[in-house]
Amino acid sequence: MSEEQYLYGVEGLLNELFSHGSSNERKREIEQTLNEFQQQTGLWRFCFYFLEHSSNQYLLMFSLKVLEDLVNKMWASVVHKERLEIQRFLLNFITWSHGSASVEPFIQKKAIKVLVDIGRADWPHQYPDFFSTIIQSIQDPSKCSLGLTMALTASEELATPREDLSMARKEELQKLLLDTVPQLLTAVLSVLEAIADRQRRTVAETPPSSPDRLSVITSRDSPVKALQLPLPHHERAPPHHYAPLDVQSEELSSVALKCLVHVFSWAPLSAALSPNLLTTIFHFASVGCEIGADARTMSCAQLGSLAMSCLNELVSKPQIPTEFQDFLVTLFVQMFNFLERITEEVVPSSTGSGESGNLLSHLDDRLVLLVHYLIRLPHQILCCQCPEYSDKIESVLLDMHYSKSTDCCFETTTLFQ
């Protein structure tokens, strides 16, 4: 039989298998036929043809499942030349499907998963450009979304690898991942910063900050000594309003923040921090607090929720070294400014017009958890470096009336005992 005949034959069987009109007995016969077909040597070449010439979702998924089983169960028996052929085909298929309306997103994600499985087995010895390809895709505007999805999948699959890997290979993968974190975060952060820069606009121009409103908390050996902190001031800065994001920017921001959340779940602070990291994340947290009740506002609230998840992953590390005290203070100051904005804009609107009573429903749990961590920072750190905040933070939290204006189970007073 020719490849085309096989295509129509397998496609017909799959359509019949998933048809509601097929009896259970007929479905068992089809499953047996397909299992026998999968035992053929070199079946993966037929799968290449199926993936290139069919738009049938059942057949595409079947083909990718055959390749996945080959990679996870029989990869050791595949010669190097054929491994490269499979790897290159998958990468080309993923790139092509990224711009194709005929391929559903779940098909593309499955193909990415199979490619990452190859990376788990062969990177870096037989697949040296595995991660550099992901970084290059993130940096390419036409492939940015694809690269971010690949990075997220790689983090999910490689940070906690399968149990069938040897301990030596698991340790090697962990070291390789840690080595790539700075480059990966730089690429992901550049995407978020570009979107944030395009979005920022103010209702009225604000004068540049005076020197007494900026300070740099430094330690001689601190890895975050370059972080700039806006210090408290007797007047709040004018509220900022953000232009709505277009659909593409929302999608890019969402997958980029998801990638950060997962990387922060396993990467140490020494690998995760950068001077612009907190500013960018807090920007998207603020975007989630925009007033309104339409669908676009709800999607922005989801971005804010993801941004808060990023921050919670950072501050919930089981052990934070002493040299990262400056980072904690930076995070506290940024959080204070964020709470001030919520107090000034969200609470008056929700209590006045009744327009946005549950605006922060997507943020509440994560926001409360973050505040829970932050106000328990070592007292001596706050007194030494941010003494003006110790008296103001309680009043800000009380202004928000969490236990009354939202459904959060959060008793503010217990946090200060």
Radius of gyration: 26 Å
**Low-pLDDT regions:** 202-239, 347-359, 400-417
Count of distinct strands: 4
**Overall pLDDT, averaged?**
77
Alpha plus pi helix count: 18
Helix content: 55-70%
Distance between the termini: 78 Å
Which shape, going by the Cα principal axes? Answer: elongated
Strand content: under 5%
Q: Which secondary-structure class do the elements indicate?
A: mainly alpha
Q: H/E element string? A: HHHHHHHHHEEEEHHHHHHHHH
Q: What's the main sheet like?
A: 2 strands, antiparallel
* Strand line-up in the sheet with most strands: 1-4
Structure, explained:
There is one protein chain. By secondary structure, the chain is mainly alpha-helical. Helix content is 65%, strand content 2%. It is built from 18 helices and 4 strands. The chain has helices spanning 3-17, 24-38, 43-53, 57-73, 80-98, 105-122, 130-139, 144-158, 167-199, 247-266, 269-272, 277-287, 295-315, 325-352, 364-374, 379-385, 387-400, 402-405; strands spanning 200-201, 214-216, 228-230, 241-242. The strands form 2 sheets. The chain has a two-stranded antiparallel sheet. The protein has a two-stranded antiparallel sheet with strand order 2-3. It is elongated, with a radius of gyration of 26 Å. The chain starts with a helix and ends in a 12-residue tail after the last helix. Residues 202-239, 347-359 and 400-417 have low confidence and may be disordered.
